[in-house]
């Protein structure tokens, strides 16, 4: 299994720097996690849009889902052009508006998930835990071939995440705030929280993501590592992690 970071900025994209998007691949099968602002154009540096048929959205904040509308249109047009022959399956938290938006475009289908769900998508088994965030949001665990990737999406720190991410081969944890800031109020984690999660879950490799548009990002890594897990880096667009 491998994971390509497509984008990792929190809130809004930087110039040529997309928001949340992660391409998970194994044996020629591809799954996109989140499709935030800027993801659709950057994604095409690595894969033809018609070669992805499954997209999981962790929640409906624009930095995680705003490019899905354009993805639906690409599938519509490319199906008519004979370049795609599969539906685009979009998975997300239950939401009537999102279901209507997806299914209003031909060749696209919506399925909801929640904390009880176990989705089998190609070679990937996906499970979820509910986050602490202003809208319904889930962390996701993807297991394939005895390897696991856990992506927290957006959340305040919660002890549930430690168990959920236990011994993950790759933990992609949000790190929206610098040490000392108030994560609980905004539904996000500081670098200290991300470090505690990295250490207590015993994750083998850790990427800090959903990064802030201010300050020295290296301070996030220094702060997170202080909690005891040394294998922590910043997520960067285009980064490939092979497990
Ligand atoms: Zn976000
Ligand atoms: Zn959010």
TrEMBL record:
Keywords: Hydrolase, Zinc
Any one GO molecular-function label of the UniProt entry: 3'-tRNA processing endoribonuclease activity
Domain of life: Bacteria
InterPro entries recorded: Metallo-B-lactamas, RibonucZ/Hydroxyglut_hydro
Pfam families hit by this protein: Lactamase_B
Segments forming domain Metallo-beta-lactamase: 18-210
Keyword Nucleus set for record: no
Listed name of the protein: MBL fold metallo-hydrolase
Organism whose genome encodes this protein: Psychrobacillus soli
